Amino acid sequence: MDEKDVKILAALKNNARLSSQELARKIGLPITTTYNRTKKLEKEGVIQRYTIQVDKKKVGKGLTVYIFAQYNLEKLGSNQRAGQDIVALLKKQKEIEEIAFITGDYDIIIKVNVADIAELNEYIVTHILKLPWIARTKTMVVLEEFLPMPSAY
């Protein structure tokens, strides 16, 4: 990857709907070069998908939280795949936007979008704490998001 590829990625991150012509104009490369480089980035898996950004408030999910979850090591036992099993179960839940394994006092961080505190409470009790391998959680409510953030790519 070189500086031209980084420019393509930055432009597409800002607006994934750009045509090859618009993208070429924006980054200052010929259309064919831009098209070929974009296709190469897709083929190599650098660009994995094109997506949209939804206004969560307008779809009734205006409360964003991060839930930190800690494993119950007694129930986890020697199950080497427990983390992957938990993620597989969590992926099925429509409220979840992101899941990541983390270091520190907790094992997993889960980004969740819900309507309000009541829905959050119900979600944690009925979905997260019901998982057999989860011992406890800690929840952080997002007061304000500043996305998307500009970056190199």
Summarize this, please?
Helix content is 38%, strand content 20%. It is an alpha+beta fold and 153 residues long. It folds into two domains: 3-43, Orthogonal Bundle (Arc Repressor Mutant, subunit A), CATH 1.10.10.10; 56-141, 2-Layer Sandwich (Alpha-Beta Plaits), CATH 3.30.70.920.
How would you describe this protein?
The chain has 6 helices and 4 strands, in the order αααβααββαβ. α1 (3-14) crosses α2 and α2 (20-27) packs across α3. The chain has helices at residues 3-14, 20-27, 31-43, 73-76, 82-90, 117-128; strands at residues 63-71, 96-101, 108-114, 134-141. The model has no long low-confidence stretch (mean pLDDT 90). It is elongated.
Would you tell me which CATH topology of the largest domain applies?
Alpha-Beta Plaits
Briefly note the structural class of the backbone. alpha+beta
DSSP helical segment count? 6
CATH architecture field of the largest domain? 2-Layer Sandwich
Tell me the β content.
15-25%
What general outline do the C-alpha atoms trace? elongated
User: Mean pLDDT, nearest integer?
Assistant: 90
Task: Note the gap between the termini.
Answer: 12 Å
As a percent range, the share of helical residues equals: 25-40%
- Counting copies of identical and different chains, the oligomeric state is single chain
CATH class of the largest domain: Alpha Beta
What's the number of domains?
Answer: 2
Low-confidence stretches: none
Largest sheet report? 4 strands, antiparallel
Number of DSSP strand runs: 4
Query: What is the CATH superfamily of the largest domain?
Result: Lrp/AsnC effector binding domain/regulation of amino acid metabolism (RAM) domain
Strand order of the largest sheet: 2-3-1-4
What is the helix/strand order? HHHEHHEEHE
| Rg calc | 20 Å
